[in-house]
Amino acid sequence: MREDFGGELRARRERLGLSLRSVASAVGISPSMLSQVETGKLYPSVSTLYHLAAFLDVSLDGLLGLSPEDGEAVGPGAPRRGPVQRADDNPRIEIEHGVTWERLAAKPGSGFEPLLVTYAPGAMSAADDRLLRHPGLEHGYLLEGALILRLEFDRRIVRAGDSFCFPGSLPHLFANETEKPAKGIWFVAPESDTGSEPAKGGSRSAAEALRALRDSI
After folding, report:
1. What residues contact 202, with CB distance under 8 A and at least 6 apart?
2. In angstroms, how far is CA 61 from the centroid of its own chain?
């Protein structure tokens, strides 16, 4: 995985003519934090990294050197084009705090990221017990284990078989307080009907697809 992605984020922001302050405000972090991410002095949380990539309309895989932005394979173990993506080809992002993301098969430009997320025992989605906020919609299904979801002032237990959905603008934190790993499927939508800033590119968002599905039932 690339360690110099901060410079790529800064270059992309400058190409779009966006200020440090405007991007930081859009993804719910401080300008000083974004500056430290861009200069490589700070590694962002999983959620912050994803929403920076989504807001700036860059491929998370390409940003981290997991695959090029056009989806071409780059050597052994790289994702292949086609309807089936083998488990061994899943791009994997291991973040500090014990959280691992595996990027699942998805059509480029589809407007959402399907992820297999694993929380090791004691892992949490942000350091220092800090609640996160970000644009978009966060929803998923827990396959195994159990997680604590802190959502504003509420504390909820999410067990295997449970699902969740909430606006990312609500302060939240996931934590695994058990002695066993917790694993689930997350669908992270950069655009939603929550009033957050839509991602650039004009692709149909996951939220719009979900609304169409609900209307058809």
Report:
1. none
2. 11
Tell me the C-alpha distance between 52 and 6, whole Å: 10
Q: Which domains, from first to last, does the chain contain?
A: 5-71+88-193 (2.60.120.10)
Length of the chain: 217
Is the CB of residue 26 less than 8 Å from the CB of residue 197? yes
Round to whole Å and give the CA distance between 144 and 33: 34
CB 172, CB 134: distance < 8 Å: no
Using alpha carbons, select from 12, 28, 32 the residue that is nearest to residue 136.
Answer: 28
Tokens matching residue 9: 């984020």
Q: What is the rounded CA–CA span in Å between residue 43 and residue 177? A: 23
**Phi-psi category of 28—alpha, beta or left, where left has phi over 0 and alpha has psi -120 to 50?**
left
pLDDT in tens, 157-175: 999 999 999 987 788 889 9
What are the tens digits of pLDDT across the range 5-27?
788 899 889 999 999 998 988 88
| 8 A C-beta contact, residue 160 and residue 142 | yes
**Dist. CA 49–CA 43, nearest whole Å:** 9
Contact of 55 with 26, CB cutoff 8 Å? yes
